[in-house]
Amino acid sequence: MNHLNTPPGPGKKENRLLSPLYRTYERFLKIRGHPREIALGFALGLFVGMTPFMGLHTAIAVPLAALFKWNKISTAISVWITNAVTAPIIYSITYVVGARILGVKRAFGMTDANSFSALYKLILKTPEIAWAMTVGGIILGLPLAIIGYYFVFSVIRKYQEDIKIKIARSKEKRAHKKEVRKKMRRDKQTVVANPHPGAAEQKQHQSRELPPDI
């Protein structure tokens, strides 16, 4: 029984939540370009996404990717990871890390940044929060970008190598089929040109056995 035709079970709701991620992942794999450029663009987007410049991440990251000649699409995709849903969590963590390093007294906790707008208002009221988030974003963004680079590089390279192998195998199959068809045409032409090759060989053999004229 084909599992593709099987109706979804209890996990139908989970499939609805994960299917956009799967589609984004598949589209990401199909980005054209060298794996190194794609990975560098993705790492840049992750790093910029950890900074507190909300609303400006794409405007900062994509021009930088163009300047360094890295992949702009992968940069934009990695920047989009920092969205209205994930921003409160990410920026709360970066603030905690930055505040500890700078010795800044914590002005708010994780529960205070329960939404994107609430976090934005807190940053406007207290500039030291933005400074602490910047430092924390750099500290967390660098290792995250490095990990993201090597992960994306290995995934993209493997995907592209698999595609090359499939294309090469497909070309070999087409070449083999073409050669088989050529051989069949040659054999058919040989049969048409000499329909009774055995008779010719027999006649030649008989001529050899005849005694010479006296």
Structural account:
The protein has a domain of 140 residues. It is 75% helix and 0% strand. The protein contains 8 helices and no strands. The protein starts with 11 loop residues before the first helix and ends in a 5-residue tail after the last helix. The N terminus is likely disordered.
Radius of gyration: 34 Å
How would you sum up the major sheet? Answer: none
Indicate the structural class. Answer: mainly alpha
Low-confidence stretches: 1-10
* Euclidean distance between termini CA atoms: 84 Å
Mean pLDDT: 78
**Oligomeric composition of the shown chains:** single chain
The proportion of strand residues reads under 5%
What is the overall silhouette? rod-shaped
Query: What is the helix tally?
Result: 8
What is the strand tally? 0
- Write down the secondary-structure element order: HHHHHHHH
Approximate helicity band: over 70%
Characteristics of this structure?
75% helix; 214 residues; single chain; rod-shaped; 8 helices; disordered N terminus; mainly alpha
Short characterization:
The chain is mainly α and 214 residues long.
SSE inventory with pairings:
Layout: H1 12-29, H2 35-49, H3 57-68, H4 72-80, H5 87-102, H6 116-125, H7 127-193, H8 197-209
Helix pairs in contact: 2-3, 2-4, 2-7, 3-4, 5-7, 6-7
